[in-house]
Amino acid sequence: MIFNKDIAKKTAEVLLQVNAIKLSPKAPFTWASGWKSPIYCDNRIILSFPPIRNYVRETMAKHIERQYGKPDAIAGVATGAIGIGMLVAEYLNLPFIYVRPDAKGHGRKNQIEGFIEKGQTVVVVEDLISTGKSSLNAVKALREGGITVKGMVAIFTYGFEISKENFEKENVTLHTLGNYESLLEQALQTKYITKQELELLTEWNSNPSEWNAI
């Protein structure tokens, strides 16, 4: 679920502005999952642009307050959402923790880094939602640690059906600033993509696991 259409449009605008979105239909990217993709979204680049990172920080923070009230802490998903999660926590004057994909194999062997107590509440901050697997892995670790997850807020989602199913299955509420549909609308409007590229990107999004550039 996106916050609203105006925010989705603005988010698409700023992501395209700083080239956080990269298109390469002729030489597709390969994701960690093995999926081939004509598009790649790297939201970490927004941290290098103060006005844009401030927009994301404040928009996320204000939504968290409206939707959930103030949780006991903000939890970022490592590594992509550590930066923006910390900025959101700072804006709300809340403690910040982050969740690794797995527990460390040395030292204190933590998966959750930072101080939080059992029974406390968090809102999870994520940068990007694809299948939702890594994001929900963080939720699982928090719940197993006795922490209540009030919901998740992310910058962008590809809107795959599999991610919607995964979030519903785990009973996690997700809100995002922007989504794939709004991104394509903005990209076409600003001539970042052609109508032919729009068709290809729409086709890929409907069945990403089977898509082939050839």
UniProtKB/TrEMBL annotation:
Catalytic EC class: transferase
CDD domains hit by this protein: PRTases_typeI (cd06223)
One function term, GO molecular function aspect: orotate phosphoribosyltransferase activity
Family matches, as InterPro entries: OPRT, Or_phspho_trans_dom, PRTase-like, PRTase_dom
Signal peptide residues on this chain, from the entry's feature table: none
Pfam families, A to Z: Pribosyltran
UniProt EC number: 2.4.2.10
Sequence ranges assigned to domain Phosphoribosyltransferase in this UniProt record: 50-149
Binding partners and assembly: Homodimer.
Name of protein: Orotate phosphoribosyltransferase
Organism: Jejuia pallidilutea
Gene: pyrE
